[in-house]
Amino acid sequence: MDLTELRTANPEHWAKAAAIRALTLDAVAAANSGHSGMPMGMADVATVLFEKHLKFDASAPKWPDRDRFILSAGHGSMLIYSLLHLCGDAQVTLDQIKNFRQMGALTAGHPENFLLDAVETTTGPLGQGLANAVGFAMAEEMQRAQYGRKIVDHYTYVMAGDGCLMEGISQEAMGLAGRHSLGKLILFWDNNNITIDGTVELSDRTNQVQRFKASGWQVIEIDGHDPVAIDEAITAAKKSKKPSMIACKTHIALGHAAQDTSKGHGALTDADQMKAAKEAYGWTTGPFEVPADIKSQWEAIGSRGAADRAEWEGRFAEVSKQKQDRFNRAYALDTPNKLSAAVKALKKQVSEDQPKVATRKASEMALAVINPIMPETVGGSADLTGSNLTKTGDMGVFDTDNRKGRFVYWGIREHGMAAAMNGMALHGGIRPYSGTFFCFTDYARPSMRLAALSKIPSVFVMTHDSIGVGEDGPTHQPVEHLAICRATPNTYVFRPADAVETAESWEIALSAKETPSVLSLTRQGLPTVRTEHKLSNLTAKGAYVLADAEAKRQVILIATGSEVAIALEAKAKLEAEGIGTRVVSMPCMELFAAQDEAYRRKVLPAGPVRVGIEAAVRAGGWDKWLMGERGQDKKAAFVGMDSFGASAPAGELYEKFGITADATVAKVKDLLG
Amino acid sequence: MDLTELRTANPEHWAKAAAIRALTLDAVAAANSGHSGMPMGMADVATVLFEKHLKFDASAPKWPDRDRFILSAGHGSMLIYSLLHLCGDAQVTLDQIKNFRQMGALTAGHPENFLLDAVETTTGPLGQGLANAVGFAMAEEMQRAQYGRKIVDHYTYVMAGDGCLMEGISQEAMGLAGRHSLGKLILFWDNNNITIDGTVELSDRTNQVQRFKASGWQVIEIDGHDPVAIDEAITAAKKSKKPSMIACKTHIALGHAAQDTSKGHGALTDADQMKAAKEAYGWTTGPFEVPADIKSQWEAIGSRGAADRAEWEGRFAEVSKQKQDRFNRAYALDTPNKLSAAVKALKKQVSEDQPKVATRKASEMALAVINPIMPETVGGSADLTGSNLTKTGDMGVFDTDNRKGRFVYWGIREHGMAAAMNGMALHGGIRPYSGTFFCFTDYARPSMRLAALSKIPSVFVMTHDSIGVGEDGPTHQPVEHLAICRATPNTYVFRPADAVETAESWEIALSAKETPSVLSLTRQGLPTVRTEHKLSNLTAKGAYVLADAEAKRQVILIATGSEVAIALEAKAKLEAEGIGTRVVSMPCMELFAAQDEAYRRKVLPAGPVRVGIEAAVRAGGWDKWLMGERGQDKKAAFVGMDSFGASAPAGELYEKFGITADATVAKVKDLLG
Fold first, then answer.
1. Do B154 and B68 meet the contact criterion of CB atoms below 8 Å apart?
2. What ipTM did this prediction achieve?
3. Is A103 within 8 Å of B386 when comparing Cβ atoms?
4. Which of B51, B376, B414, B501 is catalytic?
5. Residue limits of the Transketolase-like pyrimidine-binding domain (chains A, B) (predicted)?
C-alpha cells in the first residue's frame, strides 16, 4: 500500500501516529513475541483521540474525573504502552518499552491494571474490556447524578476488534448500554476484517452496523486512517444520547508487508520488512528512537489535561466537606465507621432471635442494614431479584430517568453483569455486588477470574448453592462450583451457616480492597447455629470451633453452610453414645489458610478423626483440612457429592445422596473402627 | 383476557392446545413447583408444529431421520412432557406426568436427554438449547452431504424465550447459523415480553427482529396464538435458504389470572385461579384427565410419522452395506476396527523417533492418523487453528459450498463452539472435537458442564495449558483450569506427557460413549518419555510407573504432562545421591481413580514420601494421590502454582515459580528430613 497520500495529507498527525507504529514494531521485534498489527492499524484513531478529545493528565493517571480509555483488544498492548510512553507517563519509561513482555516489566504481554496506573482494566480475554466499559459508563452516570456535573463528567472510550464483537459477552454489554442509553460510552470498532484464522468472513458475516443499531446504539462509519473523519466522528459521538459505535475501517499492520493479512495480527519481526515499513512511514531514526520534536508534541498532549485537572481540583475543594469525605472514602475503598457497629448490632439481634431463614434471606437482612450506611454499594441481579434477594428498599432502580438508582436489573446476562461489575469497581467510587444462581457462576466465570486476577473487590452473590435447590434438578444444582471458586487464586469463597455468619461474611467482603468475594448462599431455610453473641468476626478467622466435645474428644466434624446444622445433629448423636465430637464451622477456607499455624492447630488438633461435610464435591479444597498438607493427620472421611444432582424435593435429595447426620455418624464409626 | 374468539375460531386446534395447558397446570400444581406460563403461552405453536410439520414417530423417538425438536427454554419442560404424553410416547406415561419433578421420575424439573429418549438435549441453562440446535443443524447438513437426501433430510426446530436471546451465547449461535446459511434451522421466539423480574423492557430494549436480520436470518413475525399464521410461518421457514426466526407474539400463562405478568412465569398453583383458567379454556374434565377424543387426535399426530419412517427404512435398506455399516457404527459411537492398530503403529513410531514436540503438535500427529479412518470426526478451532493444531489435511472446510467439509472455523466463539459440538454429538453420527486455549475453557464452561451432565462425548482440545504459554501473561496462563475440569463429574481430563500418551489419550477420548474429554496440551516442546514401545494403552490406567527406583525406593514423584520430564530430571539427581525414586506419570486422574485398589496400591505403595508436580494449583485433585483418601499415606508435598502467572519467557517463569527439578529435589529432602 502506498502511504504517500496519508503521509502528505496530514503530516503532523502522521508523524505522531508513526511513532506508535515504530515503537510497536521495535518492541515486538525485541521481545520476539506480541501483536504488531492492531497498534499499527489503530494508531490514527488513538492519536486523534488522545490529541483532541481524551481528558487525561499523564502526570496523574488516577485523577478521578479523567476520561477512561480501555483497550478491549488487549493483545494490542503496545498501542497503550506506546501512547503512555510518548505522553510522558512516569511508569512507562523507554526501558519498559524495551523490556516489553520480559520478566518483571510493567509492560506485560497484555495490559494489567495492577502493574500500570494508567491501565484502567486488565484485558486480553476478548470482549471483557467492552463489557467492563459498560460498567465504567454506568458508574459515571451514577456518580454524576450523585455528585453533580462539576465533580463527575467524563467519557468512557473503548477499542474493540472483531474478536471482541464475536464473543457473546459483547451482545450482553451492547444490550445493557443500549437499554440504559449510556451516551457517554464511545466504542471504536477496529474493523480490519482479519482474525487469526483468516478473513472475518471465514467465520462471520454479521452486519455489525445493523446489529449495533438493533441494540440501541448510534453508529458512525469512517475511514480509520483519516484523522479529520476520526475527529468529526468523536465529536458527533460525544453529543449522542445513545452509546456510539464508531466503525473504523482500518488496515491491520498498515504499511507492512503483512498488511491486511492474518499474519499481520501477530509478531512482525522480519528485519527487512520492518525496515521497509518504517521507510513507508518516513521514519528514519533507529530502533526505539523518537525524534525530539515528535516526542515533545506527544508530551504536550500528555500534559494537555493538567489544566482541566487543576480546575476540577478547585471545584472539588468547593463542595461540602461531607461530600468530599464520602467521595474520597469510596474511592479509597474504605468502609464507613458505622459499618462495624451496624454488623455487630445485627449479629446480636439474630443470635437472640434465632430465625430459621435461608442464608440468601440472611443476606438480604444484612444488606438492609448495610446499604443505608454505604451509599457506594450498587446491587443487582441477573433476572432473579426475588430469588437472590439482593434488592433492599432504599436503593432505587438505576434507569434512564433515575441515574441515582443503586439497583440494576441486569437481565439474563450473568457474564455481562460480572464484567460490568468489575468495570464499576475499577471506575472507582462504587462497590458492586450482584447475584445469580450459584450454578450460573459458569456463565460469569471468565469475568470472575478477571476480578481475582486484577484485584477487583466485586461481590458475587450466588444463591441456591447445592442440591438444596431441589426440583429444578442437576442443571441448577451446583456440585463443583465451590471447588471452582476455591481453586481460583485471590478469591474469598464464603459459605455461611446462618444469619450471623452471613452478616460477618458481608462485612469482610465489603471491606476487601483487592480480593473479590463469592457468597454461596442457600435456597432453603437453616437454623441459627451462632446462638451466643460474640463481638468479634469469627468468619474472619475462616474456621472456628462452633461446639466443642463434651465427652472425650475423638472426632472433629468440619462443615460449611447448610451442612453445619447436620454436623451439630451428628454431634448430638455421637455424644449420646459417648463419642466426644467437636464441630468446626469453616465459612471461608482461604481465610483459615491465612491464619497462623498455631491457630489452625488449635482448631484442628492432631489426634481425632475428621469428617468433612459439604453438599459438594470433595475436590473443593477439603483434603488439606482433613489430612493436613503434609499428610500428618490420619484418618479422614468426607460426606458430600460425587456426582451431579437430581430433580426431587430438597429433603429427599439429601437422603438420596447420603448427606445426613446418620451418614456422618456411620463414617465416624467406620474411622474409629 | 377473553379467549372466546380464539376458542371458536379454531375449535379443534384449540382443544388439542388446551390439553397441553391443562396438563401443565395440573402437573405443576401437583409438584407445587415448576413453570406453568411458558407451556401455556407456547401451546399453540407447539400444537401446530407437531400436528402439521414435525417429522417424528412417537413409537421410535430415536429414528435417525426425524426432525429434531429442542426446547431451549427448558424451564417450560411441561410443554415437552405434555406433548410426549399426548402423542403416546412410551416413556411419558400419565404416572410420569403426575410425578413431575419427583424423585426417580423421568419428568425432571428440566428436560434431561439421559432420562427420556425423545428429549434431544438437556436444557435449562438459558441459551444452550439454541446453540445446541446450531450444532444439530450443522450435523444434518454434513450428513445430508455425505449420505444423500434419501437418508438424511430433516429440520431442526428450537423454541427459545427472551432469556435465551439475552444470553451472549445466543449471538454466537446466531452468527454461526447465519454465516453457514443453515436454512433447515427454525427458531420460534416466545415473544411474551416477560422475564422473572418483570417486563423485558426492565433490562432490554433490543430490536430482536433487526438483530436476527443483521446476523443473516430470515424473520417472520406472527401472532403466536393464531394456528393459521403459525402454519404459514413454518411453511415459509422451511423453504428459506437462511435460518429462520419466527417471532411469535404470545401471552405468557394465557388465560390465567397471572397472564402477561412475571408471576405467570413460575408455578401457578392457586386452585381457584386454575379452575377459572380451565373454564376459560372450555376444559371440563378433572385433573390429569384428557377427553378420549382429544387424546386420540394427539395419538394420531404421534403416529403420523410412522409411514415416513417405514419409507426411510426402505430407502436405507437400499444403500450399500458399507454405507449402512458406517452410518450405524457412527450412530452407535463404535470405533472402527482399524483405530486400535493405527494408534499402536503411531505409538511405536514415536517411541522410536522420540521427537521433541509440544503435545499440541503430538495431537495433530495423532489426528492425522485418526481422521482418515474415522470419517465421523468433525474438528474445529475458535480462531486458533494454527495454534491448536486441530486441522488435518484431509478434512476439508465446512462451508456453504462444501457441506462435506469436516473442519469448522468457529470464529472467536468458544461458548457457541462447545454448545454446537454438543449438539452435533447429540444429533448422532458425528464425533466432534475442537480447540481453544486452555484458559478460555472459562468461556466454554457452561457447555462443557452440560456435556458432562448429559453424557456427551465431545472432545475439548485445550492447548497452551500452563505458564508454559510464556509472554502472553496471566490472562492466558491457566492455573486453576485443571482443577475446574477435574472437579466436574463425568469428565476425563487428559494431560499427556509426550506424543505416546497423547495418542493414547485420543484413542480413549474417541472411544468414550458417555463421557466428554478435555485434552490439556502444551504450547512448548517436550521430550519423548515413553521411549519403550508398549502395545497396551497405559494412559487407560490413568497412572503408571514410568521409571522405577534404582536405589532403595524412598520417593515417589507423581507428575503430569510437561512436568513428567521435570520429574525424570529430579529422579536422576536424587538417584545420583543414592535416593531411590520412582516416577509415576498420571495423565488421567479419573481413570486412575477407576482402577481397583490393588493396582492403585501397586503404583503408589505406602512408605515412600510423595511429591506431586504439576504447573497448576494443588487443588486440582492432588491431595487424594499424595496422601490417600483416608490419610493413611504420610509425608507429601507439591511442586506447582499457588498464584496466577506472569508475563515473561516460559523457561524463566518455570524458574520464577519454582517448578524445577531442583525445587523438587529440595522438597523431597525436606520430607525425608
1. yes
2. 0.97
3. no
4. B414
5. 357-528
Q: Which three cell numbers stand for residue A99?
A: 523490556
Alpha-carbon distance A458 to A435, whole Å? 11
Statement: residue A390 has pLDDT above 80: yes
Report CA torsion sign: A499, A500, A505, A506. positive
> What is the tens place of the pLDDT at every residue in A489-511?
999 999 999 999 999 999 999 99
| Residue among B31, B443, B653 minimizing CB distance to A446 | B443
| CATH superfamily of this structure's domain B4-309 | Thiamin diphosphate (ThDP)-binding fold, Pyr/PP domains (3.40.50.970)
The tens digit of pLDDT for each residue in A594-604 reads 999 999 999 99
Please give the Cα distance from A449 to B454 (Å, whole number): 26
Instruction: Give the pLDDT score at B631.
Output: 65
Matching residue, cell 482494566: A121
DSSP tag of B422: H
Pick from B110, B126, B633: CB nearest A473: B110
**Does the structural domain B338-521 have CATH classification 3.40.50.970?**
yes
- A101/B647 CB distance under 8 A: yes
Give, in words, the CATH class of A540-672: alpha beta
Give B632's pLDDT tier (boundaries 50, 70, 90): low
Question: Residue B629 pLDDT > 80, yes or no?
Answer: no
d(CA A27, CA A24): 5
Distance from CA of B256 to the nearest CA of A (A): 21
Q: What would the pLDDT profile of A65-97 be if each residue is shown by its tens digit?
A: 999 999 999 999 999 999 999 999 999 999 999
The residues pairing with A544 across neighbouring beta strands, listed in sequence order, are: A585
Active site residue A652: no
- Give chain A positions within 8 Å (CB) of B202: 409, 411
C-alpha to C-alpha distance for B260 and B541, rounded to whole angstroms: 57
Query: Cα(B366)–Cα(B361) distance, rounded to whole angstroms?
Result: 9
* DSSP letter string, A389-448: T---TTS-B-BTTBTT--EEE--S-HHHHHHHHHHHHHHSS-EEEEEEEGGGHHHHHHHH
Sheet holding B636-641, edge to edge: B544-547, B580-585, B553-559, B609-617, B636-641
Could you tell me which of A245, A242, A231, A224 has the C-alpha nearest to residue A165?
Answer: A245
How far apart are the C-alpha atoms of B494 and B506, rounded to whole Å?
9
Q: Give B538-672's CATH code, choosing from 3.40.50.920, 1.10.3720.10, 1.10.3210.10, 3.10.590.10.
A: 3.40.50.920
Record: contact A475-B122, CB cut-off 8 A: yes
- Please tell me the predicted confidence (pLDDT) of residue B85: 98
Contact yes or no for A475 and B635 at CB 8 A: no
Look at residue A2 in the predicted model and tell me its pLDDT: 80
Neighbours of A605 (CB within 10 A): 12
* Closest CB from A108, A124, A197 relative to B383: A197
**What are the tens digits of pLDDT across the range B375-420?**
999 999 999 999 999 999 989 999 999 999 999 999 999 999 999 9
Q: How many Å from the N-terminal Cα to the C-terminal Cα in chain A?
A: 81
